[in-house]
Amino acid sequence: MAQKVILVDDLDHSEGDDVARREFPLLNRTFSIDLSDANQQRLSEALAFIDEVLENAREVKQASRAKKAADASPRLRGYTQTDVREWAREQGLDVPARGKMSDEVVEQFIAAHPDAGPAAGPDAADDSTGESAADHAEASAGAAAPRVEAAVPA
To answer: Residue 32 pairs with which residues in a beta bridge?
Structure first.
């Protein structure tokens, strides 16, 4: 038994022998629609108009949020903002629950915790001894590893 397929125009819902599946490109995509010859002509004219408009238009790009630059020299070393807030509250200082703390509070914390100050670099001299951090590392490494000598029979 033979079956007859009747295509219906997707725009005006008309049936006819001139209705066919039509593909068309738009915005780097391909679309497909069933259209009569008359509606295909209308679509072609509309696409030609859109092409003309796009040739004379400029693309607008969405504004992006500016990314916050990472702080090259962190203010605190080995402590978190939460540590500073807890310390400040213990000292009776007024600090916000969230957000930026005043520079004065951070400076007071660093004064109370000298090890929290920003490092000047791995070979920076220590103010109290004149030795660098590398010297401290060598000395502690030498002290931590006991020297072992093997006796060789003569």
So the answer is: 23
pLDDT (tens digit, 9 = 90+) per residue, 11-36? Answer: 999 998 899 999 999 888 999 999 99
* Predicted TM-score (pTM) of this structure: 0.39
Q: What is the DSSP letter of 110?
A: H
Coil, strand or helix: which one is 131? coil
Q: In sequence order, which residues have a C-beta less than 8 Å from that of residue 117 and are 6 or more positions away?
A: 77, 110
Residue 89 parent element (H or E): helix 81-90
Query: CA 89 to CA 91: how far, in whole Å?
Result: 5
105-152 per-position pLDDT tens digit: 888 988 998 887 776 544 444 444 444 444 444 444 444 444 545 555
